[in-house]
Amino acid sequence: MSHAPAPNRKAGRALDRTRVFLAWSQQVSEESALNKALDMVRKQLGEREYVVYDWSQQQHIRNIGAEIENQLHQCDLVILEGSSGRPNLAFEVGFARRADIPVIILKQEGTDALPEDFGAPKYLQYPKDASWEANFKRFEADLRRLLDTLESGVLSPGHRDLRRARAEFHHCVQQILDTYPGDHAHLHLMDGLLKAMAGGIREGGQSIITAHPDYYVRMFNALQKRAGVRVKAIADLTDDIEPFWRSSKPDLTTPVGERVFLVDWRLFFEREAELSRYIDTWRKELLRHKDYKIFVATKDDIDPRARHPFSTETVGLNLLLIEDDATFGGYRRSRDSGEQEVFIVEHDEHRCENARVFYNAVVEGAVRFESADDFVTLKRKWLGKHRIGQWDLAWNQQTERRPPAYFDRYDQHVRCWIPLYNELISECAAAVAREILHIRQGTGKPVDLLEIGHGTGSLTALILPWIKHLSEPSEALGDLPPVGHYYAVDRAEQMHNIAREYLGDDVNARVHLLKQIAWQGVRDDLRHDVIFGSLVTHFMLDRDAGRASADTFFKECLRRLRPGGSLVFSDSFGIDESSGMTSEDAARQWRDAMIAHGLTDDYANGFISGNPDMIGAFSCEELREVAAENGLVPVGERSIGSMPFFKVMAFRCPAQGTGAAAVPAT
């Protein structure tokens, strides 16, 4: 974490410097003392690099009233010499009081006091004799202390900028009033808008700001004028509430100590181009800001006990954190309208501590991004941080007995071990769809499905939208749906719970998720038209037990398959003898693919050595032979990419009366 740099007065722009309106009159008893005091004032203002408008040197201007008002509008501090009691003084002090501009009154010792209704501005008396050096030194020291005090308070950048913004706002409203000399609907509409804005400010009081999300960038950028402020932020890129981060040229200019970017974990596996675009943006951000740290995390990396300070009201997990000022902010739903999203900034010591705890929990699960990182480097950091893709030998026991680390990260683990996993399940889903249409066309009846080993629901999630889309015309016409019952079983309670949460409402509407062990728990008095699964055959078959294991598998399938039904399975299958490749060669190719996609050598080697059942699975040739012995006809075999182990296989059971082998009895 770093500090934002303090403002450099010499390099500062004139518009950002303190502007002073200075007015005085020579109608004093001791003009030489006046000039000496003014010289001291000008010297100190110059040392602080204030922009001074000396009104008494602008007497040549024609429209004096308008010029005075214009300059007072623009100033941050008014310094007036009030010894003479000139009439202009009342106007200038009154204007400054109305605009809440600080005022310093210089008075020569021995002159008459100003009226009480001037509002007791800051008075500084200077000697009436220019030769009184000691008294002038005291005046000079008093002036320096007063300016120091004002700089730390009402002349601080925040006070000055907010007063200027208020003046600009007032000027815009006045322009509207000047445009319509008579009553007009536009005036009433603007009145309603301003009252609504004032109500929002009033509701938050002094500690809460409520704003439209579109204002976030300008609000955030304004922080760069706060000297010494330490800014941290979380940008949740999984939520569209901060769309400016999706641009290659974000408008954020505020230097921050560090920022955490939350991304969807799928970017590391499925959307490389999108993550690469972010990487380019982050690299540019590091070049733009000195001493700037960037971290990257996913929501899955956050300790589940950590809570965003806005709790369930938060929109995304975006967070602005300014620890030194006990201020934090983020997006939440409007309490007046649940559909509206608002940006909230809150100043509260206790709640800011909660925000800090949440921020630190997010950083704890993040990896630091360096400018030299590319996609694979960043992915490897993230995988190593959370041990994703590391195979534990204890996982070779029954699935349901594996520890939480296996289930919580399964969808990420499996994409490390099988780099083409998305293509594998997509091809499986497509094959299932083809068999459904084939059976439906032949029978005209609803097709019943049985999925073996549904896991986290990844394959199910691909099939469900297709079924839903296919069913819409039938449902609209009151016809029978193309798909009847859809049963999905898995032996692990943990997988069952993850799939139910992931699939949401569609589970109850279209799928029956069952905690069952294939084949012991799967009823054989129910028949299905398509039985399918992904990454289950290598687990259910035991090649070391010989062909009898495959024979048993197909017989169990046939007990639950209707005549004319289909089997579809995607998995790792052994290398066919006709391929000209050995299992060792294929295993090396598999290992190299895992490493190329981000796994370390140790993780890749650990998986290969820990999963001999996948390396030594039945080959497609062997399964076709055993399937044929059981009366099944192979109708499709598709390789997945260039990885020789992975394929999708489909078999059909001939319909009754076509000479098919008899279905084994229960």
TrEMBL record:
Keywords: Methyltransferase, Transferase
Entry annotated with the keyword DNA damage: no
Gene Ontology terms, MF aspect: S-adenosylmethionine-dependent methyltransferase activity
Boundaries of every Methyltransferase type domain copy: 481-569
Keyword Nucleotidyltransferase tagged: no
Lineage top rank: taxon: Bacteria
Pfam family, one: Methyltransf_11
GO biological process entries: methylation
Name listed for the protein in its UniProt record: Methyltransferase domain-containing protein
Upper taxonomic lineage: Bacteria, Bacillati, Actinomycetota, Actinomycetes, Streptosporangiales
